[in-house]
Amino acid sequence: MSYFSTERLPLAIFVHASGRLLFRGCELVRPGALRFVFEDPERLGKQIELEFDRGAPLSATSLFASQKFLRQTMTEAINERKTGKSYDSCQP
Prior knowledge:
With about 90 residues, this protein is an alpha+beta fold.
């Protein structure tokens, strides 16, 4: 399986909101930094990133829903880390 990952929250929100790649979870890469991981069987991630950087349009409703979802996922990952629970990745 091929994956696309990014530490850029705005890009992760865009990728999630577009629905073009399946969100698999996030990983804590260092204190205060998470990596968002998406399944990318067709290796579209870099193209989607370019579209994002060029300002591709997407509905505000989709963006805000994805932002809320990913921020909740981030909070859960950070809280797990703070409480000392075993942490490898956060899953949706």
